[in-house]
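Troubleshooting log. The previous structure file for this entry was overwritten by mistake, so regenerating from the original sequence record. Sequence copied from the archived sheet and checked twice against the printout by T.R.
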Amino acid sequence: MGIDERDRLSHAVLGAAFEVSNILGHGFLEIVYRRALVAELTRREIHAREEVPFPVFYKGDEVGRYFADIMVEDRMIIELKCTETLSPAHVAQTLNYLKAGRIPIALLISFGKPRIQYQRIILQGA
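Regenerated output below.
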């Protein structure tokens, strides 16, 4: 996925996230925002799936399974939070999800304040 394509997809997803935030506000559980964001992306004809599983491997052995909150167009992970701030731990967690899923880009989005917070995370070398 080229840089321009990443930018377009990020912009489209963030537009949908802002729409969800404008309508719902803050204070709901993560599952509410996840379902609303998938519904909004679908309305915008952007393919999105919830709880997409990815195995985690250690030296060739599957040692766990991660479930992406939302997978967009089979090439971007959306990790949702409902926290006051996005922490370095959230970024590290999302980066690990990119590695596990071999996906090049993620958006970490928090609906924990009246205006969403977000960070785009790109897997280096992807």
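The chain has a mean pLDDT of 92. Archived copy saved in two places this time.
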